[in-house]
């Protein structure tokens, strides 16, 4: 672990940055490129550790992948040409890789074994394994497939009609990519819409998928064809600078090429409702993934309640939204967010514990947290729990804290934002 000490002296933040590529889209670009026949080129790929784990897994399956900076080229003869790996597929800290790969591998002719780091070993996998087993998948693992390592024996799959018990793009994506190899038409029903990158990318690679009123219908046996994928900037990464710009004194930050997929833009809605001074200029609305240039300034913020259908659209941003709420007038309530308990760590406990160390008025609830502000924050020694988003939350808090803030493991931030601290330091005006 690499601790980082920060005593920024409550600076102003000024300037323009371009956040790294979207993690969710980067993962899927490699997955789809490997499944498809032909050449796929990816522009703006995120060189974070999670996405590199995805590349490593497909290379072990015999797929040719070349990386040149943030450009990636994938050449594949299709899923039937994959080779049975001689090694365990190691997914690192990536829940996206682990869960979606289960769906992809279930319908192959291969025997594979997947495992990840200690954090992945604690994250629930049965929520994916169970619907895949309903399709005929053969998946074995600790506690009946609840935890890694997981062994997958590829088999013939059948379409299912499945109602999602919780909003999860990873589970939905695993089912849809298994459905590619299944006989019949698979139907997935969502009560709350989760991020739709998989549905968009299926179309981009030449498949037909129908979505209406939360019901997704996808016929098996379709072929994917290699194409070009442009990866937008990750709004989950931009969220940390959106919050920093709103709460640091005398600040104005502009971010270019930020993905504003409507299933992911909940942080923008929260900032707007809390009164943030923000300007959004939309780029090409016809692109597979819409993007925008977003400018935010220091703002007088007011508390709000964050709940219901908004939660799946900002689940990864809740740690930094909680920090934002410490600087808003009134009591902010975050609820319906039980999913936070099964992220890289239990993010409800982690966020509340670490923000309390900084002096925040925050309490945990069964499905979220209650934050009363505004509260002046002070220095403290913080834990990241190996969770990149907890680490970045602590670093943004250091920008407004009085005194030194230390995070115990700055290296974990490289999972999603390898140049995070370079961007922080480029914006500081002393």
Structure in words:
- The chain has 13 helices and 26 strands.
- It is of the alpha/beta class.
- It folds into two domains: 4-21 and 232-429, UDP-n-acetylglucosamine1-carboxyvinyl-transferase, Chain, CATH 3.65.10; 23-230, Alpha-beta prism (UDP-n-acetylglucosamine1-carboxyvinyl-transferase, Chain), CATH 3.65.10.
- The strands form seven sheets. A five-stranded mixed β-sheet has the order 18-19-17-2-26.
- The chain is globular, with a radius of gyration of 21 Å.
Set out the fold topology.
Blueprint (H helix, E strand, L loop, with lengths): L3 E3 L5 E7 L4 H13 L1 E7 L5 H12 L3 E5 L2 E7 L11 E2 L4 H12 L4 E5 L10 H9 L3 E4 H4 L1 E7 L3 E2 L2 E3 L5 H11 L2 E2 L1 E5 L7 H8 L5 E3 L2 E5 L8 E3 L4 H13 L4 E8 L6 H8 L3 E6 L8 E7 L7 E2 L11 H8 L4 E5 L12 H11 L3 E5 L2 E6 L4 E5 L5 H11 L3 E6 L12 H8 E2 L1
Parallel strand pairs: 2-17, 3-16, 6-7, 10-12, 11-13, 20-21, 24-25
Antiparallel strand pairs: 1-25, 2-26, 3-5, 4-5, 7-9, 8-9, 13-15, 14-15, 17-19, 18-19, 21-23, 22-23
Helix pairs in contact: 1-2, 1-3, 1-7, 3-6, 4-6, 8-10, 8-12
Jot down its keywords.
single chain, 430 residues, alpha/beta, UDP-n-acetylglucosamine1-carboxyvinyl-transferase, Chain, 5-stranded mixed sheet, 26 strands, 30% helix, globular
